[in-house]
Amino acid sequence: MEGKKKSFLIYFDSYPLLSALPMEQRGLLLSALMVYADRVWREPELSPEEVMGQFPMSQEARMACGFMAGNVARDTQRWLEQRRRRDQRRQEQPQTPSLKQQEDAFQLRHAATRRLLEETRET
Questions:
Q1: In this predicted model, which residue has the larger pLDDT, 122 or 42?
Q2: 62 neighbors 21 (Cβ within 8 angstroms)
């Protein structure tokens, strides 16, 4: 699939949630978010809980992860919509001929011009 999603955002307003967690729980939360963000653009029905179940997070970390995953899901939906609109615009635009096609068209025009010049010389 063209246009693979390569990133996700973590917002500064999540810092109070993160700073209240022990370091190990922060790492588990970030790992769960990475997995969720990497999968949710391909599997829009994926729930954060499905991913969080793979990581031994505390209840506080799960709550923070759920909040942050909501932002990831919202941003991902925006990204998917932008990508859909971009792809639609590309399909609506006339296709630019390839370099080979341009060269072939030039050769045909050149040959036609040469024939016209030869015909005018003969008359």
A1: 42
A2: no
8 Å CB contact between 15 and 42: no
CA 35 to chain centre: 16
pLDDT at 22: 97
Rounded to 10 degrees, what is the CA torsion of 52, 54, 60, 64?
A: -30
Give tens-digit pLDDT for 33-42. Answer: 999 999 999 9
86 and 106 inside one domain: no
pTM, two decimals, is: 0.70
Of 9, 7, 3, which Cα lies nearest the Cα of 70?
9
Q: Is the pLDDT of residue 97 over 90?
A: no
Domain that holds residue 50: 12-92
**Among 78, 42, 22, 41, residue whose Cα is nearest residue 30:** 22
Short-list 66, 64, 85, CA closest to 74: 66
Q: What is the tally of structural domains in the chain?
A: 2
Q: Would residue 56 count as lying in a domain?
A: yes
